[in-house]
Design a protein that fits this description.
Layout lengths: L4 H12 L12 H7 L2 H22 L1 H21 L5 H20 L7 H16 L7 H9 L10 E4 L2 E4 L28 H30 L3 H10 L2 H23 L4
Helix pairs in contact: 3-4, 3-5, 3-9, 4-5, 6-8, 8-9, 8-10
């Protein structure tokens, strides 16, 4: 038996009411940093290199190797104790293991940095290589970590800075006929937005340049067999340079997101 009366009418009215608009989530710098491992994770990544350079200068290659391994293990254990994500620590431990293996096999302290030089060159090439295909990797990463809602949310459309769930045949009801109008056209994918594509392209170039700079400077001191300077610039062009480039990236991306979520005039 179906319900009738005011209560039934009220339930029916609520069932036919359109879902309330939802504000799109704004760009969150802290969330992005957390996904990247945070500032602490970036500092942790430099500790084995610092330990290697200092210990190598004091006690030679073998002492430097054990110091780097010990520092990587300490970082790994501290993350476990703090119950933080250990993915970055595991990858760092693996990288240190490969670096010390190369240095141990060659007997040259400078070879500890070979992996880092090759990795920086490879990352720079991949970043630049993504640009001609109109898939700048900084844009791919930014839209994955914090979508700007430009074609990024499946099953949603954007209209005047609002996100509406798409439902079959749903639209804005006509006040006179009571019939639903046509759904608004979906916004373009971020790659089809010239402003977003241009900004992400230049940010990708910026990141590629930072990796090439790091590899180039390290290569100069590698050829000169200046282990202390090689290690120093490995650290200086690591966290500090990355922090500057990351700060510029977050600032630009935040401005892009504000631009995309502004309501139409």
């Amino acid at each position: 038996m179906t319900g009738a009366g005011p209560a039934g009418d009220e339930v029916g009215d609520r069932a036919t009411e359109p879902a309330p608009d939802r504000e799109p989530s704004m760009f969150d710098r802290e969330m992005v940093l957390e996904q990247l491992g945070g500032w602490r994770g970036m500092v942790d990544a430099t500790l084995p290199t610092v330990a290697f350079v200092v210990a190598n200068g004091i006690g030679g290659l073998r002492v430097g190797i054990w110091a780097a391994i010990l520092a990587a293990l300490v970082v790994f254990l501290l993350r476990m104790v703090r119950r933080e994500t250990i993915q970055q620590a595991v990858s760092g431990l693996f990288a240190v293991g490969v670096a010390v293996a190369i240095a141990s096999a060659s007997g040259q302290a400078r070879d500890y940095f070979v992996l880092g030089i090759v990795r920086s060159l490879a990352v720079g090439v991949v970043l630049l290589g993504s640009i001609p295909f109109r898939w700048p990797l900084v844009g791919v990463a930014a839209e994955f970590l914090a979508p700007s809602h430009v074609g990024s949310l499946a099953g949603h459309t954007l209209r005047r800075g609002r996100v509406r769930p798409e439902e079959g045949g749903s639209g804005t009801p006509d006040g006179e006929t009571g019939q639903s109008g046509a759904d608004p056209e979906p916004e373009r994918h971020w790659r089809d937005d010239p402003r977003l594509l241009r900004a992400y392209t230049w940010l990708t170039v910026l990141w590629a340049a930072s990796f090439f700079l790091r590899a180039g400077v390290q290569w100069v001191y590698y050829l000169a067999d200046e282990v202390e300077l090689l290690g120093t610039f490995s650290v200086v062009l690591g966290l500090p340079l990355t922090a500057v480039v990351l700060a510029v990236t977050l600032w630009v991306v935040a401005r892009l997101h504000r631009h995309r979520t502004q309501p139409d005039a």
